[in-house]
Amino acid sequence: MSNECSIFQDCVSKAQFRNKSILDIVTKLSEQTAMLDRAVFKSVTHCGCVKINAEKQVICNDKTIEENKCFLKSHVEGNLCPKCKEKVEEEMGDLIFYLASLCNTLDINLSDVINQKQDYLKTLGIYSLL
Fold first, then answer.
1. Quick one: which of 113, 118, 85 has its CA closest to 8?
2. What is the largest CA-CA distance in the chain?
3. Going by DSSP bridges, is the β-strand pair 50-52/76-78 parallel, antiparallel, or unpaired?
4. Over 60: is that where the pLDDT of 130 sits?
5. I want to staple 84 with a disulfide (CB 3.0 to 4.6 A). Which of 74, 80, 114, 129 is the partner?
6. Cβ count near 94 (within 10 Å)
7. Helices (H) and strands (E) in the chain — how many of each?
8. Helix, strand, or coil here: 60?
9. pLDDT tens digit string along 33-46?
10. What secondary structure letter does DSSP report for 21?
C-alpha cells in the first residue's frame, strides 16, 4: 500500500497544474467532498438502487463494545448499481486526488499519514474513535 500511495502521490504532483495554490486545493477538497455526497445521495433519490433508513443508534451500557457493534447499523439498504458505483468511485478518486495534492503542497507523505493512522488504530482499537 505504501508504494502505491507514493506512486499515486507522484502522479498527482505531475498532473497538478491549475490549482497549485493551497487555497485552491483546500476549497477543491471541500467541493469534492460535496460532489461525493451528491453522488451517494443521487443513488438514493434518482436511481433508487440503495435506500437510507436511518434511526437513532442505541448503545447499551450493560453490553460490551463488541456486543454493541452487532446492533449498530449503516442505515443503508441495498447495493449500488454498477452505474452509481462507478460514479461514487469516480468522486472518491477525485477526492483522493485533492488530498494527495494537499499532501504534496504541505510536503507530507500520504503513505506516512495512512501508516500513522493505522498504527494509532491498532494501538487504541475501537477506543480511538470514541
1. 113
2. 55
3. antiparallel
4. no
5. 80
6. 17
7. 5, 2
8. coil
9. 999 999 999 999 99
10. S
Cell numbers for 3: 508504494
Question: Could you tell me if 13 and 109 are in contact, meaning their C-beta atoms sit under 8 angstroms apart?
Answer: no
Question: What is residue 33's three-state secondary structure?
Answer: helix
Phi-psi region of 104 (alpha: psi -120 to 50; beta: other; left: phi over 0): alpha
pLDDT per residue as tens digits for the range 50-103: 999 999 999 898 988 888 888 889 999 999 999 999 999 999 999 999 999 999
| Structural domains of the chain in order of their starting residue, each with its CATH number | 2-8+21-129 (1.10.287)
Cα(90)–Cα(110) distance, integer angstroms: 19
Q: How many CB atoms lie within 10 A of CB 32?
A: 19
| Interacting residues of 42 by C-beta distance below 8 A, sequence separation 6+ | 84, 87
The C-alpha cell of 91 is what?
468522486
Mean pLDDT of 111-118: 93
